[in-house]
Amino acid sequence: MKSLLKEGAGFPNRLLYTLAVIAGVSVANLYYNQPLLDMIRQELGITTIAANHIALYAQCGYALGLLFLIPLADLYSRRRILLIDLTSLVLALFATALASNISAIHFCSFVIGICSVVPQFFIPFAAQYSRPEDKNRNVGIVLSGLLTGILASRIISGAVGEWLGWREMYLIAAILMLFSAIIIFRVLPDAKSNFSGSYGALMRSLFTLLRQYPLLRLHSVRAALAFGAFMCFWASLAFKMAQAPFYAGSDVVGMLGLCGVVGALTATFSGKYIGRVGVFRFNCIGALLQLTAWGLFLAGADYYLPLIGGILLIDIGMQCIQLSNQATLFELCPSASNRINTIFMSCYFIGGSFGTLLSGMVWSLYGWPGVVGVGALLSLSSLTITLFVKK
């Protein structure tokens, strides 16, 4: 399908759902490592901090990929960009499976992070080319695919890691991305450029957009803090579950991700309620759900039921915050949708990287109570910003 689409004219549902599925498969590469961290630590004989940095390097790479790659979609063909990106991703996944030391895994994780930004090419695409009345719904469907991929990745990698090994998980991921690249190249239509000028001018325009739209700054910062809290939990869960009283392997850690899939799937229909409920209320609800989850993680730290309830709440809360902040930003300047998404998601994953870093630090110093304290503080900071500005 190589014909040009017309902005706001809509596109087939089969394309929308294809993008949602591949968004999930692509972003999963960023999170396969989480249930496998303790397994990698044991095989390579490294510290928990070094193992935690596998996730940190992936998050940092993703943030840089968002900042420097996504704006290119306003300047060049998405199809061409994605072909190069996905080829690099496949090579990095294969290299991780063959890596013999932690330095190589850190480097490959960084490259995997950079190249896993594929879904962030799809979300602005859905916003820009959907009919106005379908925009929030379509963005929600693609975002639902992304969130489901994040959560399902932990289930899949946990099971594969336990049954086959962590290296085999990365081999399977490389094969999945090879098939995804073929599909994307066949079904993604071309889209006209939204920017005339050099790459340098394109990047400078990001600062112009930041100055021009205060809501862009607000939405980005509070969502980043909430995502930092979200990642704070998942970055240390494998280490906690490996200890007493659970003594659980990667398969159990992965299965806990299944609890969050229920929350992620609600993104499919919750987008249409943003206008009715309001962004302010969506953010308040999301932050309060996260804080409730942290209470469960602390009070029921040694029991499965409170952990499962907390995972449901923290995932639904995160979804409320991300969807309400991200989907509404595309209305600010539709012709700059890729750059607006770049700013939002770069801040978002900087927040995630910060939460991952803090999680590793406080785990080594204070254990699980330290992780809960830092995560709750990040969620509370997001809520405070929302209550202060009342938007």
Task: Summarize the topology.
Layout: H1 13-27, H2 33-44, H3 48-68, H4 78-98, H5 102-115, H6 119-129, H7 135-163, H8 166-187, H9 199-212, H10 214-241, H11 250-265, H12 267-270, H13 274-277, H14 279-299, H15 304-329, H16 337-366, H17 368-389
Overview in brief:
With 391 residues, the chain is an all-alpha fold. Helix content is 79%, strand content 0%. The chain is globular and about 55 Å long.
Binned, the helix content reads over 70%
Structural class: mainly alpha
Ranges where pLDDT stays below 50 over 5 or more residues in a row are none
Work out the strand percent.
under 5%
Indicate the overall shape: globular
Distance linking N and C termini: 41 Å
Number of strands: 0
Total count of helical runs of at least 4 residues:
17
What's the mean pLDDT score? 87
Order of helices and strands: HHHHHHHHHHHHHHHHH
Fill in the keyword field for this structure.
0% strand; single chain; globular; mainly alpha; 17 helices
What does this structure look like?
This protein has 391 residues and is an all-alpha fold. Helices cover 79% and strands 0% of the residues. The protein has 17 helices and no strands. The chain has helices at residues 13-27, 33-44, 48-68, 78-98, 102-115, 119-129, 135-163, 166-187, 199-212, 214-241, 250-265, 267-270, 274-277, 279-299, 304-329, 337-366, 368-389. Helix 4 runs antiparallel to helix 5 and helix 6 runs antiparallel to helix 7. The chain is globular, with a radius of gyration of 20 Å. The N and C termini lie far apart (41 Å). The mean pLDDT is 87.
